[in-house]
Amino acid sequence: MTVRKDLIIGGAVAVVALVSGGIYLSNGSGGSYADCVASNVAGGLDNFGTSFTLRNQKDEQVTDQEVFSKPSLLYFGYTYCPDVCPLDSARNAEAAEILKERGIELQTVFITVDPDRDTPEVLADFTDSFPGDMIGLTGTQEEIAAVNKGWRNYYKLNNQEDSEYYLVDHMTNTYLIMPGNETVEFFDRNKSPEEIADSAACFIQAAS
């Protein structure tokens, strides 16, 4: 990743400014989580998510039910991203570490928006860069498109002129997924690890 930074970091900053706001949502989750929900989404976060079968960084085929067997922070990005994706992934991993110290289990999941370059082997190198047991997922272009559509995640490959060092425009929200593939909250880039940890703890404790 480091050899690409000088070439594409300027473009990445512009991309983040364009898409980091992504979806501004209005609250739909209720029930036992009503006291925990801070974000809002038209129609409710119940409408987010989809079932899937993808390949993890160990090149194993896994389903959404297998991946989301425990509370998870889900992020869509790509390993060739020069700054945003590593920073957001590090923040999410830090939030999980904060909860680990409190005796609360929270895992992190990274789904690529760049499956042509992000093979299981490449994802393994990326996920190994962060504390905890981050899960990296990839698939075919069609499989990745379907998963992104399920979480309403915009992305666009800018690979028309450069097939090697291209950028990918993408949204930068992180989703909190409860066991059974239930999306209950989302966090934008402005949220700190502590804020994410506190919010996730509320949901996890409400479910227990």
Automatic annotation (TrEMBL):
Q: Where are the transmembrane segments?
A: 7-26
Q: List the disulfide bonds.
A: 81-85
Q: What keyword terms does UniProt attach to this protein? A: Copper, Disulfide bond, Membrane, Metal-binding, Transmembrane, Transmembrane helix
According to the lineage, what is the superkingdom? Answer: Bacteria
Provide the residue positions that the database annotates as binding Cu cation.
81, 85, 170
GO terms of molecular function: metal ion binding
Family (UniProt): Belongs to the SCO1/2 family.
Would you tell me the protein name for this molecule? SCO family protein
Look up and give the organism this protein is from. Answer: Paracoccus onubensis
